[in-house]
Design goal:
heterodimer, A: about 260 residues, mainly alpha, 10 helices, B: about 160 residues, alpha/beta, about 30% strand, elongated
Protein backbone atom coordinates (compact mmCIF):
# COMPACT_ATOMS: atom_id res chain seq x y z
CA UNK A 1 0.00 0.00 0.00
CA UNK A 2 2.82 2.34 0.90
CA UNK A 3 4.57 1.44 -2.37
CA UNK A 4 1.53 2.48 -4.36
CA UNK A 5 1.16 5.80 -2.65
CA UNK A 6 4.14 7.55 -4.16
CA UNK A 7 3.38 6.99 -7.89
CA UNK A 8 -0.24 7.99 -7.40
CA UNK A 9 0.88 11.12 -5.58
CA UNK A 10 3.30 11.95 -8.40
CA UNK A 11 0.58 11.43 -11.00
CA UNK A 12 -1.76 13.70 -9.10
CA UNK A 13 0.95 16.30 -8.67
CA UNK A 14 1.83 16.39 -12.37
CA UNK A 15 -1.85 16.57 -13.26
CA UNK A 16 -2.49 19.55 -10.97
CA UNK A 17 0.66 21.20 -12.32
CA UNK A 18 -0.66 20.86 -15.85
CA UNK A 19 -4.07 22.20 -15.00
CA UNK A 20 -2.52 25.14 -13.16
CA UNK A 21 -0.34 25.86 -16.16
CA UNK A 22 -3.31 25.71 -18.51
CA UNK A 23 -5.18 28.10 -16.25
CA UNK A 24 -2.18 30.42 -16.15
CA UNK A 25 -1.93 30.26 -19.96
CA UNK A 26 -5.61 31.18 -20.31
CA UNK A 27 -5.34 34.07 -17.88
CA UNK A 28 -2.19 35.18 -19.67
CA UNK A 29 -4.11 35.06 -22.97
CA UNK A 30 -7.01 37.09 -21.59
CA UNK A 31 -4.65 39.64 -20.02
CA UNK A 32 -2.74 39.93 -23.29
CA UNK A 33 -5.91 40.55 -25.29
CA UNK A 34 -7.07 43.18 -22.80
CA UNK A 35 -3.70 44.94 -22.91
CA UNK A 36 -3.19 44.86 -26.69
CA UNK A 37 -4.02 48.54 -27.00
CA UNK A 38 -0.34 49.47 -27.14
CA UNK A 39 0.26 47.02 -29.96
CA UNK A 40 -2.18 48.99 -32.11
CA UNK A 41 -1.62 52.50 -30.79
CA UNK A 42 2.10 52.16 -31.35
CA UNK A 43 1.68 50.07 -34.46
CA UNK A 44 5.34 50.32 -35.44
CA UNK A 45 6.08 47.86 -32.61
CA UNK A 46 3.81 45.33 -34.31
CA UNK A 47 5.19 46.16 -37.76
CA UNK A 48 8.68 45.41 -36.48
CA UNK A 49 7.51 42.03 -35.26
CA UNK A 50 5.70 41.32 -38.54
CA UNK A 51 9.07 41.86 -40.18
CA UNK A 52 10.72 39.27 -37.93
CA UNK A 53 7.88 36.75 -37.92
CA UNK A 54 6.48 37.22 -41.43
CA UNK A 55 8.98 38.71 -43.83
CA UNK A 56 11.88 36.60 -42.63
CA UNK A 57 9.75 33.43 -42.94
CA UNK A 58 8.91 34.23 -46.56
CA UNK A 59 11.76 32.34 -48.19
CA UNK A 60 11.11 29.04 -46.46
CA UNK A 61 7.35 29.36 -46.98
CA UNK A 62 7.64 30.16 -50.69
CA UNK A 63 10.21 27.46 -51.43
CA UNK A 64 8.36 24.77 -49.48
CA UNK A 65 5.04 25.77 -51.04
CA UNK A 66 6.51 25.46 -54.50
CA UNK A 67 7.98 22.04 -53.81
CA UNK A 68 4.86 20.72 -52.10
CA UNK A 69 2.82 21.76 -55.14
CA UNK A 70 5.30 20.20 -57.53
CA UNK A 71 5.34 16.89 -55.65
CA UNK A 72 1.53 16.91 -55.41
CA UNK A 73 1.31 17.31 -59.18
CA UNK A 74 3.78 14.51 -59.83
CA UNK A 75 2.16 12.07 -57.43
CA UNK A 76 -1.39 13.07 -58.30
CA UNK A 77 -0.72 12.65 -62.00
CA UNK A 78 0.56 9.10 -61.47
CA UNK A 79 -2.70 8.03 -59.88
CA UNK A 80 -5.12 10.15 -61.92
CA UNK A 81 -3.81 9.10 -65.32
CA UNK A 82 -4.52 5.48 -64.40
CA UNK A 83 -8.20 6.39 -64.42
CA UNK A 84 -7.84 8.57 -67.48
CA UNK A 85 -8.70 11.74 -65.61
CA UNK A 86 -5.40 13.57 -65.54
CA UNK A 87 -7.29 16.81 -66.28
CA UNK A 88 -8.51 16.70 -62.69
CA UNK A 89 -4.93 17.39 -61.59
CA UNK A 90 -5.75 21.07 -61.14
CA UNK A 91 -8.59 20.23 -58.76
CA UNK A 92 -6.43 17.84 -56.78
CA UNK A 93 -3.56 20.29 -56.38
CA UNK A 94 -5.73 23.32 -55.64
CA UNK A 95 -8.13 21.68 -53.20
CA UNK A 96 -5.48 19.86 -51.21
CA UNK A 97 -3.42 23.04 -50.94
CA UNK A 98 -6.19 25.51 -50.24
CA UNK A 99 -8.09 23.33 -47.78
CA UNK A 100 -5.39 21.45 -45.92
CA UNK A 101 -1.77 21.65 -46.86
CA UNK A 102 -1.54 25.42 -47.20
CA UNK A 103 -2.69 26.30 -43.68
CA UNK A 104 -1.23 23.20 -42.00
CA UNK A 105 2.23 23.07 -43.54
CA UNK A 106 2.60 26.85 -43.45
CA UNK A 107 1.53 26.69 -39.79
CA UNK A 108 4.08 23.99 -38.97
CA UNK A 109 6.83 25.93 -40.73
CA UNK A 110 5.72 29.12 -39.02
CA UNK A 111 5.81 27.39 -35.62
CA UNK A 112 9.35 26.17 -36.12
CA UNK A 113 10.66 29.27 -37.88
CA UNK A 114 8.93 32.14 -36.06
CA UNK A 115 7.34 30.55 -32.99
CA UNK A 116 10.64 29.20 -31.70
CA UNK A 117 12.31 32.57 -32.31
CA UNK A 118 9.59 34.39 -30.34
CA UNK A 119 9.91 31.97 -27.41
CA UNK A 120 13.71 32.20 -27.39
CA UNK A 121 13.63 35.99 -27.54
CA UNK A 122 11.11 36.46 -24.73
CA UNK A 123 12.75 33.73 -22.65
CA UNK A 124 16.14 35.33 -23.03
CA UNK A 125 14.67 38.73 -22.12
CA UNK A 126 13.39 37.10 -18.98
CA UNK A 127 16.70 35.34 -18.27
CA UNK A 128 18.65 38.59 -18.63
CA UNK A 129 16.08 40.34 -16.43
CA UNK A 130 14.96 42.79 -19.09
CA UNK A 131 11.35 41.91 -18.34
CA UNK A 132 11.87 42.56 -14.63
CA UNK A 133 13.58 45.85 -15.52
CA UNK A 134 10.54 46.92 -17.54
CA UNK A 135 8.26 46.16 -14.63
CA UNK A 136 10.55 48.28 -12.42
CA UNK A 137 10.12 51.15 -14.86
CA UNK A 138 6.33 50.67 -14.71
CA UNK A 139 6.22 49.48 -18.32
CA UNK A 140 3.87 46.56 -18.73
CA UNK A 141 6.01 43.88 -20.44
CA UNK A 142 2.94 42.06 -21.71
CA UNK A 143 1.63 45.17 -23.46
CA UNK A 144 5.06 46.28 -24.68
CA UNK A 145 6.75 42.97 -25.58
CA UNK A 146 4.22 40.16 -25.74
CA UNK A 147 1.13 41.66 -27.39
CA UNK A 148 2.92 43.09 -30.48
CA UNK A 149 4.53 39.70 -31.10
CA UNK A 150 1.19 37.98 -30.73
CA UNK A 151 -0.63 40.27 -33.15
CA UNK A 152 2.24 40.15 -35.60
CA UNK A 153 1.92 36.36 -35.66
CA UNK A 154 -1.84 36.50 -36.08
CA UNK A 155 -1.51 38.94 -38.99
CA UNK A 156 1.38 37.14 -40.68
CA UNK A 157 0.05 33.60 -40.58
CA UNK A 158 -2.90 33.91 -43.02
CA UNK A 159 -0.75 35.89 -45.43
CA UNK A 160 1.95 33.24 -45.30
CA UNK A 161 -0.60 30.46 -45.76
CA UNK A 162 -2.12 32.24 -48.77
CA UNK A 163 1.32 32.68 -50.30
CA UNK A 164 2.10 29.03 -49.60
CA UNK A 165 -1.06 27.89 -51.41
CA UNK A 166 -0.55 30.29 -54.32
CA UNK A 167 3.06 29.19 -54.70
CA UNK A 168 2.05 25.53 -54.44
CA UNK A 169 -0.55 25.91 -57.17
CA UNK A 170 2.04 27.62 -59.32
CA UNK A 171 4.43 24.72 -58.65
CA UNK A 172 1.69 22.26 -59.55
CA UNK A 173 1.07 24.20 -62.75
CA UNK A 174 4.77 24.13 -63.62
CA UNK A 175 5.05 20.38 -63.19
CA UNK A 176 1.57 19.39 -64.37
CA UNK A 177 1.23 21.64 -67.39
CA UNK A 178 4.74 22.61 -68.40
CA UNK A 179 6.59 19.39 -67.57
CA UNK A 180 4.05 16.57 -67.88
CA UNK A 181 1.84 18.25 -70.45
CA UNK A 182 -1.64 18.19 -68.90
CA UNK A 183 -3.88 20.45 -70.96
CA UNK A 184 -3.53 23.98 -69.64
CA UNK A 185 -7.15 25.00 -70.20
CA UNK A 186 -8.48 21.90 -68.49
CA UNK A 187 -6.09 22.35 -65.59
CA UNK A 188 -7.31 25.87 -64.82
CA UNK A 189 -10.96 25.55 -65.79
CA UNK A 190 -11.56 22.34 -63.83
CA UNK A 191 -9.82 23.96 -60.89
CA UNK A 192 -11.99 27.04 -61.14
CA UNK A 193 -15.12 24.97 -61.55
CA UNK A 194 -14.61 23.07 -58.33
CA UNK A 195 -12.79 25.44 -55.98
CA UNK A 196 -15.40 27.53 -54.22
CA UNK A 197 -14.42 30.93 -52.90
CA UNK A 198 -16.48 30.67 -49.73
CA UNK A 199 -16.38 26.96 -48.99
CA UNK A 200 -12.75 26.30 -49.78
CA UNK A 201 -10.70 29.46 -49.85
CA UNK A 202 -12.42 31.30 -47.00
CA UNK A 203 -12.36 28.21 -44.81
CA UNK A 204 -8.65 27.83 -45.54
CA UNK A 205 -8.09 31.42 -44.47
CA UNK A 206 -10.11 30.87 -41.27
CA UNK A 207 -7.99 27.82 -40.54
CA UNK A 208 -4.78 29.76 -40.97
CA UNK A 209 -6.01 32.54 -38.65
CA UNK A 210 -6.86 29.93 -35.99
CA UNK A 211 -3.43 28.35 -36.38
CA UNK A 212 -1.80 31.77 -36.18
CA UNK A 213 -3.55 32.47 -32.87
CA UNK A 214 -2.66 29.04 -31.47
CA UNK A 215 1.00 29.07 -32.53
CA UNK A 216 1.80 32.59 -31.36
CA UNK A 217 -0.14 32.17 -28.14
CA UNK A 218 1.86 29.04 -27.31
CA UNK A 219 5.10 30.74 -28.37
CA UNK A 220 4.68 33.89 -26.29
CA UNK A 221 3.39 31.95 -23.29
CA UNK A 222 6.24 29.46 -23.32
CA UNK A 223 8.71 32.33 -23.58
CA UNK A 224 7.09 34.27 -20.77
CA UNK A 225 6.80 31.17 -18.59
CA UNK A 226 10.34 29.88 -19.30
CA UNK A 227 12.78 29.15 -16.50
CA UNK A 228 15.16 32.12 -16.62
CA UNK A 229 18.21 29.99 -17.35
CA UNK A 230 19.95 28.92 -20.55
CA UNK A 231 18.57 25.42 -20.11
CA UNK A 232 15.08 26.71 -19.35
CA UNK A 233 15.00 28.82 -22.51
CA UNK A 234 16.16 25.94 -24.66
CA UNK A 235 13.56 23.55 -23.25
CA UNK A 236 10.85 26.22 -23.61
CA UNK A 237 11.79 26.63 -27.29
CA UNK A 238 11.53 22.88 -27.82
CA UNK A 239 8.18 22.81 -26.04
CA UNK A 240 6.89 25.61 -28.28
CA UNK A 241 7.66 23.70 -31.47
CA UNK A 242 6.30 20.39 -30.18
CA UNK A 243 3.16 21.79 -28.55
CA UNK A 244 2.23 24.12 -31.38
CA UNK A 245 2.77 21.43 -34.03
CA UNK A 246 0.50 19.08 -32.12
CA UNK A 247 -2.00 21.88 -31.58
CA UNK A 248 -2.06 22.63 -35.32
CA UNK A 249 -2.69 19.01 -36.23
CA UNK A 250 -5.39 18.54 -33.60
CA UNK A 251 -7.11 21.84 -34.45
CA UNK A 252 -6.93 21.01 -38.13
CA UNK A 253 -8.80 17.79 -37.55
CA UNK A 254 -11.50 19.56 -35.56
CA UNK A 255 -11.82 22.40 -38.08
CA UNK A 256 -11.95 20.02 -41.04
CA UNK A 257 -14.62 17.99 -39.30
CA UNK A 258 -16.63 21.16 -38.71
CA UNK A 259 -16.12 22.75 -42.13
CA UNK A 260 -15.99 20.05 -44.74
CA UNK A 261 -18.29 17.31 -43.52
CA UNK A 262 -22.01 16.95 -43.02
CA UNK A 263 -23.71 18.68 -45.91
CA UNK A 264 -22.05 20.58 -48.69
CA UNK A 265 -23.86 23.83 -48.14
CA UNK B 1 17.82 48.09 -39.43
CA UNK B 2 15.97 51.39 -39.34
CA UNK B 3 12.26 51.81 -39.21
CA UNK B 4 11.73 52.90 -42.81
CA UNK B 5 13.38 49.79 -44.25
CA UNK B 6 11.34 47.55 -42.01
CA UNK B 7 8.19 49.40 -43.05
CA UNK B 8 8.99 48.85 -46.70
CA UNK B 9 9.62 45.15 -46.21
CA UNK B 10 6.48 44.67 -44.18
CA UNK B 11 4.47 46.65 -46.72
CA UNK B 12 5.81 44.47 -49.51
CA UNK B 13 5.05 41.35 -47.47
CA UNK B 14 1.48 42.36 -46.77
CA UNK B 15 0.95 43.36 -50.40
CA UNK B 16 2.37 40.01 -51.56
CA UNK B 17 0.14 38.13 -49.12
CA UNK B 18 -2.95 39.98 -50.30
CA UNK B 19 -1.91 39.36 -53.90
CA UNK B 20 -1.68 35.67 -53.05
CA UNK B 21 -5.19 35.73 -51.63
CA UNK B 22 -6.43 37.59 -54.68
CA UNK B 23 -4.77 35.02 -56.93
CA UNK B 24 -6.52 32.25 -55.01
CA UNK B 25 -9.87 33.99 -55.22
CA UNK B 26 -9.72 35.02 -58.88
CA UNK B 27 -7.55 32.51 -60.67
CA UNK B 28 -8.05 29.40 -58.55
CA UNK B 29 -11.54 30.03 -57.23
CA UNK B 30 -14.56 30.69 -59.35
CA UNK B 31 -15.04 34.35 -58.54
CA UNK B 32 -14.19 35.71 -61.96
CA UNK B 33 -14.08 32.60 -64.07
CA UNK B 34 -15.69 32.70 -67.48
CA UNK B 35 -16.51 36.37 -67.31
CA UNK B 36 -18.55 36.72 -70.43
CA UNK B 37 -18.73 40.20 -71.81
CA UNK B 38 -22.18 39.86 -73.29
CA UNK B 39 -24.49 36.98 -72.69
CA UNK B 40 -28.04 35.92 -73.35
CA UNK B 41 -30.18 33.53 -71.35
CA UNK B 42 -32.03 30.60 -72.83
CA UNK B 43 -34.18 28.15 -70.93
CA UNK B 44 -34.74 24.47 -71.42
CA UNK B 45 -36.91 21.89 -69.69
CA UNK B 46 -35.54 18.50 -68.88
CA UNK B 47 -37.38 15.47 -67.51
CA UNK B 48 -34.29 14.54 -65.51
CA UNK B 49 -31.08 16.49 -65.15
CA UNK B 50 -29.13 13.75 -63.37
CA UNK B 51 -26.16 15.32 -61.65
CA UNK B 52 -26.08 18.59 -63.57
CA UNK B 53 -25.06 21.50 -61.38
CA UNK B 54 -25.12 25.27 -61.75
CA UNK B 55 -21.95 26.53 -63.47
CA UNK B 56 -21.65 23.36 -65.52
CA UNK B 57 -20.30 23.92 -69.01
CA UNK B 58 -22.47 24.20 -72.10
CA UNK B 59 -20.65 22.84 -75.08
CA UNK B 60 -21.39 22.81 -78.73
CA UNK B 61 -19.18 20.65 -80.91
CA UNK B 62 -16.99 20.29 -77.83
CA UNK B 63 -16.39 24.02 -77.44
CA UNK B 64 -17.54 25.74 -74.27
CA UNK B 65 -20.13 28.32 -75.35
CA UNK B 66 -21.71 29.12 -71.99
CA UNK B 67 -22.56 28.04 -68.48
CA UNK B 68 -25.59 26.72 -66.67
CA UNK B 69 -26.64 29.66 -64.53
CA UNK B 70 -29.72 28.37 -62.77
CA UNK B 71 -31.61 25.16 -62.16
CA UNK B 72 -35.17 25.17 -60.89
CA UNK B 73 -38.04 22.78 -60.51
CA UNK B 74 -41.21 23.56 -62.41
CA UNK B 75 -44.17 22.50 -60.33
CA UNK B 76 -46.59 22.61 -63.27
CA UNK B 77 -44.86 20.24 -65.61
CA UNK B 78 -42.82 18.44 -62.93
CA UNK B 79 -39.71 19.07 -64.92
CA UNK B 80 -36.44 20.81 -64.30
CA UNK B 81 -35.98 24.25 -65.83
CA UNK B 82 -32.36 24.86 -66.66
CA UNK B 83 -31.21 28.34 -67.60
CA UNK B 84 -28.28 28.54 -69.99
CA UNK B 85 -26.16 31.65 -70.10
CA UNK B 86 -24.62 31.69 -73.55
CA UNK B 87 -21.88 33.87 -74.93
CA UNK B 88 -23.50 36.30 -77.34
CA UNK B 89 -20.73 35.71 -79.86
CA UNK B 90 -22.36 32.35 -80.52
CA UNK B 91 -25.77 32.20 -82.17
CA UNK B 92 -27.83 29.08 -82.48
CA UNK B 93 -30.85 28.24 -84.67
CA UNK B 94 -34.25 28.07 -83.01
CA UNK B 95 -34.53 24.30 -83.35
CA UNK B 96 -31.28 23.61 -81.54
CA UNK B 97 -31.46 20.58 -79.28
CA UNK B 98 -29.90 20.21 -75.85
CA UNK B 99 -28.63 17.01 -74.27
CA UNK B 100 -27.20 16.36 -70.86
CA UNK B 101 -23.98 14.47 -71.40
CA UNK B 102 -21.22 13.12 -69.22
CA UNK B 103 -17.58 13.77 -69.90
CA UNK B 104 -15.86 10.42 -69.72
CA UNK B 105 -17.48 7.45 -68.04
CA UNK B 106 -17.70 8.96 -64.57
CA UNK B 107 -16.81 12.58 -65.25
CA UNK B 108 -18.90 15.62 -64.56
CA UNK B 109 -22.03 16.39 -66.52
CA UNK B 110 -22.41 19.12 -69.06
CA UNK B 111 -24.96 20.29 -71.61
CA UNK B 112 -24.34 19.57 -75.27
CA UNK B 113 -26.04 21.79 -77.85
CA UNK B 114 -26.65 20.54 -81.34
CA UNK B 115 -27.61 23.13 -83.92
CA UNK B 116 -30.65 22.54 -86.07
CA UNK B 117 -31.45 23.94 -89.48
CA UNK B 118 -33.84 26.78 -88.70
CA UNK B 119 -33.27 30.18 -90.28
CA UNK B 120 -34.34 32.02 -87.14
CA UNK B 121 -31.90 32.32 -84.28
CA UNK B 122 -32.37 31.80 -80.55
CA UNK B 123 -32.61 35.08 -78.68
CA UNK B 124 -32.57 35.93 -75.00
CA UNK B 125 -35.61 34.55 -73.13
CA UNK B 126 -36.33 31.86 -75.71
CA UNK B 127 -36.48 28.25 -74.75
CA UNK B 128 -34.93 25.19 -76.28
CA UNK B 129 -37.72 22.77 -77.20
CA UNK B 130 -35.83 19.61 -77.99
CA UNK B 131 -34.15 18.24 -74.93
CA UNK B 132 -32.77 14.91 -73.91
CA UNK B 133 -32.44 13.99 -70.25
CA UNK B 134 -29.42 12.74 -68.47
CA UNK B 135 -28.76 9.05 -68.58
CA UNK B 136 -29.36 7.63 -65.14
CA UNK B 137 -27.30 4.54 -64.70
CA UNK B 138 -29.72 2.89 -62.27
CA UNK B 139 -32.60 3.22 -64.74
CA UNK B 140 -30.52 1.70 -67.51
CA UNK B 141 -29.53 -1.22 -65.34
CA UNK B 142 -33.06 -1.89 -64.11
CA UNK B 143 -34.36 -1.67 -67.67
CA UNK B 144 -31.77 -4.17 -68.74
CA UNK B 145 -32.67 -6.49 -65.88
CA UNK B 146 -36.40 -6.27 -66.64
CA UNK B 147 -35.79 -7.05 -70.31
CA UNK B 148 -33.61 -9.94 -69.36
CA UNK B 149 -36.24 -11.31 -66.99
CA UNK B 150 -38.95 -10.93 -69.63
CA UNK B 151 -36.81 -12.79 -72.17
CA UNK B 152 -36.16 -15.59 -69.74
CA UNK B 153 -39.84 -15.90 -69.00
CA UNK B 154 -40.69 -15.99 -72.70
CA UNK B 155 -38.12 -18.68 -73.28
CA UNK B 156 -39.57 -20.68 -70.41
CA UNK B 157 -43.14 -20.30 -71.67
CA UNK B 158 -42.16 -21.61 -75.11
CA UNK B 159 -40.78 -24.82 -73.63
Amino acid sequence: MAGLREPVQRLGHSMTERILRLGFASRFFAYMLLHSGTAFRRFHLTIREIYFAGVLSLIIILVSGMFVGMVLALQGYETLQRYGSSEALGILVALSLVRELGPVVAGLLFASRAGSAITAEIGLMKATEQIAAMEMMAVDPIARVVAPRFWAGVISMPLLAALFSAMGIFGGYLVGVQLIGVDEGAFWSQMQASVDVRNDILNGVIKSVVFGVAVTWIAVFEGYDAQPTAEGVSSATTRTVVTSSLAILALDFVLTALMFTGGTK
Amino acid sequence: MNRATIDIWVGAFVAAGLAGLLFLALKVGNMASFSLDKTYDVQAKFANIGGLKPRAAIKSAGVVVGRVSNIQFDNDSYQAIVTFTLDSRYKFPKDTSAKILTSGLLGEQYVGLEAGGDQKLLAGGDSVRLTQSAVVLENLISQFLFNKAAEDKEAKDKK
